[in-house]
Amino acid sequence: MTASAAQPAPADTPAHPVLAEVVRSGFTEGRHRGSLVLLAADGSVERALGDPAAPVFPRSSNKPMQAAAILRAGLELSGERLALAAASHSGEGFHLALVRRMLAEHGLTAADLRTPPDLPLDPVEAEAYLAAGHVREPLTMNCSGKHAAMLAVCVRNGWDTAAYLDPAHPLQRLVHQVVEEAAGEPVAAVGTDGCGAPLMAISLVGLARAFRSFVLAEPGTAERRVADAMRAHPEYVAGTRRPDTWLMREVPGTLSKMGAEAVQAVALADGRALAFKLDDGGTRALGPVLARALELLGVDSPVVARIGAAPLLGGTAEVGAVRAAF
């Protein structure tokens, strides 16, 4: 497996459609373009906007596949530990405590993590963390649960823990295989994620297909075990103030995972699925676009409005909103 760089789109490539607008005081001051795909319950493409067949880096939306590879490699994980292995956690106290326990259970410490030093992902937690006099550290980085699980499976198999992020490492070669199997397409490029782990590019269609395959997988398979753990313990996948948690908690059977640079993938219990990416990486539009996509898939739940709320303030008054435009 060799690393390759994603190629820029030709200059004459048509612009992707506007998926969200930023409207302040009745004036549209910004737009977010991107691509989106909705899959019907039978896996067929129900709606496509932009170019969802083009490869993207799913970023942390790849984490369920990485967790499945860890299980396939022989690490026994379940419950909160397996959910945290697929997490972009908020850095809340219960997240950090479990990462420490997962490391200690395999004779590891936070010093073995190769995540970059960071603050908690959740702004409330970051403020409290700094107020307590702490500094950025690898443990606090939102991917530390995934890295703890990767290190643990290396210990279990006698693999080199110092090289666990090398694309040629046995674990990362298995991740590559699982991503291709779940997406039903070849990996288009291999890069390096923000946490330092290898990152596999697939299409948005492939990403939606992968999430669909996890919720429909046979009980007991690695894929189904990951989906079940994430859905049973969504607060460990994200945090108490995060849309992924809200959606998985309030719409039973739903699997949801965001990724950096404004990527989102969701699969419903019956196989309906969605994936999208905003071209500019603007995460402020994630909620409105996700809420509209869920509406188009027929999700009827109060949580959809909660996810889609993105008000704009003028002083202390609400003067506009980020809203979906499709």
Folded structure, characterized:
The chain has 12 helices and 11 strands. It is of the alpha+beta class and 326 residues long. Strands 1, 2, 3, 7, 8, 9, 10 and 11 form an 8-stranded antiparallel sheet that branches. The chain has a 3-stranded antiparallel sheet with strand order 4-6-5. Strand 2 and strand 3 form a beta hairpin. The longest helix has 14 residues, at 144-157.
Q: Which segments are poorly predicted (pLDDT under 50) over 5 or more consecutive residues?
A: 1-6
Shape: globular
Order of helices and strands: EEEEHHHHHHEEHHHHEEEHHEE
Number of strands: 11
Mean pLDDT equals 96
How would you classify the quaternary structure? single chain
Count of alpha/pi helices = 12
Reported for the largest beta sheet, the result is: 8 strands, antiparallel
Provide the helix percentage: 25-40%
| Structural class assignment | alpha+beta
The radius of gyration computed from the alpha-carbon positions, rounded to a whole number of angstroms, is 19 Å
Strand content: 15-25%
Distance between the termini: 39 Å
